[in-house]
Design a protein that fits this description.
10 helices; 12-stranded parallel beta sheet; alpha/beta; 3-stranded parallel beta sheet; single chain; about 20% strand
């Protein structure tokens, strides 16, 4: 009797469940979400995918026109030809809701892109209050199409990569303007641009106009100087700058670096150190006492006077608390005669020494102890760097290295 009652109860529950399922079967719960959530979903898709979703129902038909975070990328999965990509981009911006502000755009096209259309896009962005702009585009223009005549108060983050196609190698990189008016800009990352020297003594000064700049990344950028007999100098002047990353080009004419960054906190350098760390000859407020975190990666070949310059860098940066250095850099330091026996009265504040060992170099005996002689309680972390195969095929080692560094700091 009890078993029969339990069976009947189970049947009743099953019937109720089936009725509930039938009642909600086919109901589009996602479309019931508010517009703000649906737009958030669409902002995580490529722009073409967001447009394609509009055919699902009338609820989705015009939502893509109000997306404020866009991603436009030309890849063969979405666009078979460059012409189809350019057509889509042109129609996409023409069809957007003109009253909707554009918060962020990630744009990537590694083939030659119509310069006139590129100008139209950038003009549209700044007329719609763009805040974050990330562009990777092939551009053979003498000037990258950034307008210098107006002041744009909304842009806070700008990342530009000038991509050179194979047939364009050897051409001058696009020139980064010296007088952009971005008063709210806090983050600037530039790759493969040219800075024009505008002073008689061969100085390029493209960053002093950015009064709020916090982070600056310069990668594989060159200098153009009409006066060939004048030494090229890149002058970085910023009271607000906290984080500075410089990757010097290996296959272009090198230049010297002059700093006026009294509040610099983090300094990351890769390349050939042809210069001592110093300020402009007319600037007296340059010091490095605020720099606490330093990363240095020097190539071992063509060492010339690198050892003495590297030694001077360590003297100038003596108040840093963490130093990340490659094994190649230590090998260069090792070239100073009896460097591990020198009384080095610096680096008292060093708390962490990170050494990245690559497969094509070794860790010189005693060199790391030379750096730690005045900071015996500092933590030393040694981890393998990327192999040649990693560099060619995979970028995952970058995230792994960052994770190890975070763990070592804690």
């Amino acid at each position: 009797m009890l078993l029969r009652q339990m069976a009947n109860n189970r049947t009743i529950k099953t019937c109720r469940t089936m009725k509930t399922r039938r009642r909600y079967y086919g109901k589009d719960r996602i479309s019931c979400l508010p517009d703000c959530l649906l737009l958030h979903i669409l902002s995580n898709l490529e722009a073409k995918q967001a447009v394609q979703i509009s055919i699902l129902s009338t609820r989705w038909k015009d939502l893509w026109k109000n997306i404020s975070v866009l991603s436009l990328s030309r890849n063969f999965r979405n666009f078979q030809s460059l012409e189809s990509f350019a057509t889509f981009v042109s129609q996409f911006f023409s069809s957007r809701d003109d009253k909707t502000s554009l918060q962020a755009l990630t744009f990537e096209c590694t083939h030659y892109f119509d310069p006139n259309l590129l100008k139209r896009i950038i003009k549209y962005l700044f007329s719609h209050n763009i805040q974050h702009l990330d562009m990777k585009v092939a551009c053979s223009l003498e000037h990258f199409p950034l307008c210098t005549n107006s002041s744009y108060h909304t842009l806070t983050s700008l990342k530009l990569i000038s991509w050179e196609e194979v047939q364009q190698w050897g051409r001058q990189k696009p020139v980064f303007p010296n007088s952009l008016q971005f008063p709210a800009l806090t983050y600037l990352s530039l790759q493969s641009f040219t800075f024009r020297c505008t002073t008689d003594d061969g100085y390029a000064d493209p960053f002093s106009v950015f009064q709020s700049l916090n982070t600056l990344i310069i990668e594989c950028c060159s200098l153009y100087n009409e006066k060939t007999r004048v030494e090229d100098n890149l002058f970085i002047s910023s009271v607000s700058l906290v984080n500075l990353t410089i990757v010097l080009p290996a296959n272009y004419k090198s230049y010297k670096l002059k700093l006026s960054t009294p509040n610099l906190f983090s300094f990351d350098f890769t390349g050939h150190p042809f210069q001592n760390l110093c300020g402009h000859h007319n600037i007296s407020n340059t010091n490095f006492s605020y720099i606490k975190h330093v990363k240095i990666h020097l190539p071992f070949h063509k060492v010339t006077n690198f050892p003495s310059i590297l030694f001077n860098w360590l003297v100038e940066l003596d108040l840093m608390e963490s130093l990340a250095i490659s094994s190649e850099t230590l090998e260069i330091l090792k070239l100073i005669p009896d460097s591990w026996k020198i009384d080095f009265p610096y680096l008292h504040n060093l708390k962490l020494l990170e050494i990245e060992i690559h497969e094509f170099s070794s860790l010189p005996d005693g060199t790391e102890d030379f750096l730690l002689q005045n900071a015996p309680s500092a933590k030393k972390v040694i981890f393998p760097g990327p192999t040649l195969k990693d560099l060619i095929c995979n970028d995952s080692w970058i995230n792994e290295a960052k994770t190890r560094r975070k763990q070592s700091r804690h």
